[in-house]
């Protein structure tokens, strides 16, 4: 009886004690030149904003922002064979088949960078991380075998197309966080020791399940709680939670939620809505002045007819991201 009650409570959306503070939309930018669309990662690396698509396996994009619409300039790289990932055979085969049909065998879903100019791409299909050095030479990181095993033991990475959805790296390139998307969602951390990555005291920081009301639908139908993007700024993690149209600040040590801000007013304004209950914000980068949010519309048109990838610029909250 107790177990059944807990399972029932997990399906009940959490009630908010009070409305979240709204982030102000500073600007909206349409992106031209992404061959397959589906913008799924953003990162400010060096002197430019970079993006990736989950339909492209061998290119990322430098965004030229001096004119409107923004232009995506492709940077190509040679993709080495991915290493073994520890995922079940059936899940690997589904990812392989999906990649053949829609394109994007790697299903790159997140982008980050360090102060040395290395770019880090997380592959959902491979549950792996590809590093591009400043010369665009690609190499898969040697992740510990225990990473996927610990994640699955905590209830994450159990469902197809619900694996790693976000990545964040500290400027020194010594700590790396991964966000598991949904059913269950969670955060994991790895530490670099010379040229290898290790789980120091365990990979899993947090894991949670349950549903929440979709803000995209009039009936607020329940959808799984999810993480769709991850960023690191000023020694804090920031999770993008698209179903709730919010960015949340979290502890990098244990993943504990500290404060959240909403961008629902901007994203759900007249003309910007997409016909989906899940939310389409899938990329995030946070800096002192604000946040960049990237939209993966999966080929859909929104109410105003726009079908190209879109990037929103949100102002930082009053008092900054570390305000109590």
From TrEMBL:
Residues 297-324 are annotated as: Disordered. Residues 299-309 have a biased composition (Basic and acidic residues). Residues 37-184 form the Phytase-like domain. SUPFAM superfamilies: NHL repeat. The keyword Aminoacyl-tRNA synthetase does not apply. InterPro entries: Phytase-like_dom. Keywords: Isomerase, Signal. It comes from the Bacteria. GO terms for molecular function: isomerase activity. Residues 1-17 form the signal peptide. Pfam families: Phytase-like. This is DNA topoisomerase IV. It comes from Stutzerimonas kirkiae.
């Amino acid at each position: 009886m107790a177990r059944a009650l807990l399972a029932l409570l997990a399906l009940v959306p959490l009630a908010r004690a009070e409305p979240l503070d709204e982030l102000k939309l500073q600007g909206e930018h349409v992106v031209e030149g992404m061959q397959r669309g589906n913008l799924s990662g953003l990162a400010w690396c060096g002197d430019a904003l970079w993006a990736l698509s989950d339909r492209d396996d061998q290119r990322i994009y430098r965004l030229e922002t001096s004119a409107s619409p923004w232009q995506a300039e492709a940077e190509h790289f040679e993709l080495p064979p991915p290493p073994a990932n520890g995922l079940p055979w059936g899940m690997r085969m589904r990812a392989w088949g999906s990649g053949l049909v829609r394109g994007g065998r790697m299903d790159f879903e997140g982008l980050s960078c360090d102060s040395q100019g290395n770019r880090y791409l997380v592959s959902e299909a491979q549950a792996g991380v590809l590093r591009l050095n400043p010369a665009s030479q690609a190499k898969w990181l040697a992740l510990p075998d225990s990473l996927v095993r610990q994640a699955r033991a905590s209830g994450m990475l159990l469902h197809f197309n619900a694996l790693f959805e976000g990545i964040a790296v500290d400027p020194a390139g010594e700590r790396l966080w991964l966000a598991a998307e949904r059913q269950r969602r969670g955060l994991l951390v790895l530490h670099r020791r010379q040229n290898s990555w290790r789980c120091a005291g365990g990979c899993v920081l947090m894991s949670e399940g349950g549903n929440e009301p979709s803000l995209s639908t009039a009936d607020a139908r329940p959808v799984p709680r999810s993480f769709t993007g991850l960023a690191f700024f000023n020694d804090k993690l920031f999770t993008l939670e698209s179903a709730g149209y919010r960015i949340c600040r979290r502890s990098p040590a244990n993943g504990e939620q500290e404060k959240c801000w909403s961008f629902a007013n901007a994203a759900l304004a007249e003309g910007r809505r997409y016909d989906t209950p899940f939310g389409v914000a899938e990329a995030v980068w946070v800096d002192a002045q604000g946040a960049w949010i990237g939209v993966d519309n999966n080929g859909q048109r929104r109410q105003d007819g726009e079908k190209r990838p879109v990037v929103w610029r949100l102002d930082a909250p009053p008092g900054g991201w570390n305000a109590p």
